[in-house]
Inverse folding.
């Protein structure tokens, strides 16, 4: 019998930790209740990197890159340090997960297939240099046409990928066709985490939230086509949203430290019944969104004003976080 809402949710869906603070993961980890994956992004890396208590980790990353003796310009040196910080932050959480550490490619490469592939390979290699095999690494990659093609290539060479900044069924189907291990549809657009006043509360998020039917359509479509790609909703603000998402029957849900703490303090709710998908998914299923350079995906995003807006804004926010992290490194170098 579950004694908390978090425990109840863990009996229904795989719970991942959307945080790079090992204390958060440790707090909600027991031999009986474990996280599978740790998800991350440029915002989460920045949040940890600037903490005074993590100064030694940052210095370790700097020394590691310096020790390679590469003849680099300052900008590339800092990018390398930031990648090593990402790896070291993930490594601290590894004891509290059973699956993969996630690391996100740079938003600056989101519309460049080759550069996205190169960054993904670099991250996987850095994890390997720190004793973490590629089987326990998943690279988060934005759901642009160019980057979905990068996922397709990376999966073929044995690198696990997750399609992130995902707001539509065509993006999800493209990711499935590319062979991604996961898709991470955002329940809330990213900006609500930076400007909380933009977040809107719904009395019944499962029924009323604008992303509910999108995520339900992804779950239904993947079930219909027997996709091996797993659905991992992200960008959650409240426990009520987690309960709503659990009713959609996804494979995983990734949850921030704040919301994990809230869920652990709340009692179980009445039975969480499945929410039905009322969207007609049939017209989408026969389309090959990755063919001809992902042309159909490009057209679908261009025709969907909200997806285009949310995707563009998320990439801009992640880019801002990456730039702030690089500026922070200027203060410690």
């Amino acid at each position: 019998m579950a004694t908390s809402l978090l425990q109840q949710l863990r009996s229904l869906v795989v719970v991942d930790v959307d945080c790079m603070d090992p204390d958060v993961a440790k707090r909600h980890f027991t031999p009986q209740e474990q996280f599978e994956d740790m998800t991350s992004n440029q915002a989460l890396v920045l949040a940890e990197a600037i903490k005074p208590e993590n100064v030694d980790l940052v210095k370790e990353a700097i020394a590691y890159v310096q020790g390679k003796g590469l003849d680099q310009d300052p900008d590339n040196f800092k990018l390398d340090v930031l990648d090593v910080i990402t790896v070291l932050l993930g490594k601290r959480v590894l004891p509290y997960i059973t699956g993969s550490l996630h690391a996100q490619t740079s938003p600056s490469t989101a519309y460049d297939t080759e550069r996205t592939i190169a960054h993904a390979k670099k991250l996987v290699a850095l994890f390997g240099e720190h004793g973490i095999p590629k089987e326990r690494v998943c690279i988060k990659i934005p759901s642009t046409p160019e980057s979905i093609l990068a996922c397709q290539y990376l999966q073929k060479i044995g690198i696990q990928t997750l399609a992130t900044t995902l707001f539509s069924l065509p993006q999800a189907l493209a990711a499935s066709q590319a062979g991604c291990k996961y898709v991470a549809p955002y329940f809330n657009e990213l900006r609500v985490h930076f400007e909380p006043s933009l977040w809107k509360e719904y009395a019944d998020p499962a029924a009323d939230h604008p992303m509910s039917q999108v995520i339900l359509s992804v779950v239904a479509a993947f079930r219909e086509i027997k996709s091996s790609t797993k659905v991992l909703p992200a960008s959650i603000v409240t426990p009520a949203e987690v309960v709503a998402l659990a009713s959609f029957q996804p494979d995983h849900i990734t949850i921030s430290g704040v919301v994990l703490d809230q869920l652990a303090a709340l009692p179980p709710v009445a039975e969480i019944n499945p929410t039905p998908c009322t969207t007609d998914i049939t017209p989408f299923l026969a389309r090959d969104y990755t063919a001809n350079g992902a042309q159909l995906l490009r057209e679908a995003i261009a025709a969907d004003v909200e997806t285009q807006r949310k995707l563009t804004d998320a990439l801009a926010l992640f880019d801002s976080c990456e730039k702030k992290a690089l500026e922070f490194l200027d203060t410690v170098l």
Summary: The chain has a mean pLDDT of 98. The CA atoms of residues 183 and 231 lie 5 Å apart.
